[in-house]
Amino acid sequence: MLTIWGRINSHNVKKVVWLGEEMGLAYDRRDVGGPFGMDEAYRTLNPNALIPTIEDDGFVLWESNSILRYLAASHGGEAFYPADAQRRASVERWMDWGFSWADAIRPIFFQLVRTEADKRDAALIERSVARAADLSAILDDVLGRQEWLSGDAFGIGDIPVAAYANTWFQLPVERPSRPNFERWYAALQDRAPFRDVVMIPLS
Ligand SMILES: N[C@@H](CCC(=O)N[C@@H](CS)C(=O)NCC(=O)O)C(=O)O
């Protein structure tokens, strides 16, 4: 049985749980991090004191994108993780780009969701919204040429960007029109695991 440690309102935990659901894996998720804290046993598993961490048949792994790659490679097969080097790299490029995208969204999320209204930094929010809007043009461009970030079919290349895209679309900010990016976000919502795991209220 796969164990996933991490509170479900964490973007990086959502990514892993979402893939587990897409792949129909049996898993046991345990709340760690944020208000749940981290005990010494957890810090021994993950010396970064961050979530998520998984344990699969005695194998312990942290770093959410590495976990996605591992689960896709070990349990998902070609449908989730292409064997061809160039196709695989094209998928992984979006997973890694997802951290730039996350860096743009994170300050807006922390400010508008986890900071009291009178303590918010309006300039930081404005700068971050402008940065995310610029980056969304890159997504709009690629999604005008291919259906998914992973290519012709949904795959792990979509997951990291989508976890934060959901937050971007849920936050009360002004977003420029990006029709291809919006089409992709609508298509994600046809997937039950995306709705159930990712589209939970922001907290
Ligand atoms: N690069 C790491 C980042 C992990 C990370 O920053 N996790 C956050 C939650 S999204 C965390 O552990 N925060 C501390 C906490 O929840 O207590 C990964 O992708 O796994």
UniProtKB/TrEMBL annotation:
Entry's Gene Ontology molecular function annotations: transferase activity
Every GST N-terminal domain range: 1-79
InterPro entries (UniProt xref): Glutathione-S-Trfase_C-like, Glutathione-S-Trfase_C_sf, Glutathione_S-Trfase, Glutathione_S-Trfase_N, Thioredoxin-like_sf
SUPFAM superfamilies: GST C-terminal domain-like, Thioredoxin-like
Keywords from the UniProt entry: Transferase
Keyword match Transferase: yes
Pfam families: GST_N_2
Tree of life domain: Eukaryota
The GST C-terminal domain, residue ranges: 84-203
Residue ranges of the TM segments: none
Similarity annotation: Belongs to the GST superfamily.
Protein name (database record): Glutathione S-transferase
Organism taxonomic ancestry: Eukaryota, Viridiplantae, Streptophyta, Embryophyta, Tracheophyta
